[in-house]
Amino acid sequence: LDDALATAAAGGGPADLERFAAAVLADSVDAVTSRAMCGALVQGITTAGLPADAHKVAAEATLALLAPRAVSFLAETNSLRQQLSSLLEAEEEWSRAAAVLSGIDLDSGTTDANRERREADKLRTEVHIARLYLEDDDPAQAEAHVRRAAALVAGSADELLQLQYSTCHARVLDAQRRFLEASLAYYAVSKKVSVTDGDGNRLEQDEAEQQTALTQATTCAILAPAGPQRSRILATLYKDERCAKLPSYALLEKVHLERMLRPAEVESFTQTLRPHQMAVRGDGTRVHERAVVEHNLLAASTLYTNISFGELGSLLGTTAEAAESIAARMVIEDRMRASIDQVDGYIHFMPDVEELSLWDAQIQDVCAAVNDVLDEAVAKGLVGDDSVAMA
Fold this sequence. Notes:
Oligomer: single chain
Strand content: under 5%
């Protein structure tokens, strides 16, 4: 074994290591000897300082030999998978690295005594796999591991790991075009200034990472379906002083204030988007284009009492039929209050009764509070009844 390791370390290739692995894992070798020699082989591959290519080939060959007996060589298999994944990650072969790491068995051998450590290892591994798939823009594969991590993250005290999970979760939601949820998730990540890792060390989150998360929160909020939920998220972002420093702040302000977006502004915004945020939908429109049309339709509802679909289509840069279809869906989904007159080809916008009722209730609360103050002042003799009557 030492000679094989020395040859591989000197650049002679891993052939001798492959032959050694085949010999010690042969069916003719008893289990005790095979396990001891395989453990020595894995330890040697780990510490011998092999060139990356030789290390990778030796690990792959040994894993292939161990595959039929992986349950009996669990520690050795897991160690080799971690090594091989790290080598592939260094070569930026993200998906291959994730696939190798996915084969690690962290369930076998779990007892009450080591359950907490095993759960932490499992969470760390699932988050790492999800991050690798996301590096390769494969949110579909990442989602499965984010779901598995979700069942474990609540029991973890490692805030750094929780932050990494939250970032992966936000990116998966974003890739799935669940922009409302993604915006909230990104915003929560951006609020994390510092975290504690598993060893109790306090770590500051990089300011650039916070700004990236805040930028993505803003982008997802703008792309989200127009309606009350989106308006609440936009209001939260607009009130956050950090957003004033973002390049997209001017657009955020216009969207929050429900102002019409001009083509030049939309074009500038489009240049900042990721491919999935500009993907073609089933109806032939692009994701960001539909978001802009819905926003401008909602903005038009604050400017007009009613408007024909022909004029509305011209205003939105689309056809009358498309304008009617989009408006109908927004009304059905309770994202806009309006009635559609298909006979005359008009849409009649309605004021938001809920907001008006809320505003009335707030005024009533203020008036009641003022009355309470005056009554208390009269009771204490600070103000005369005549003065209250004049007020």
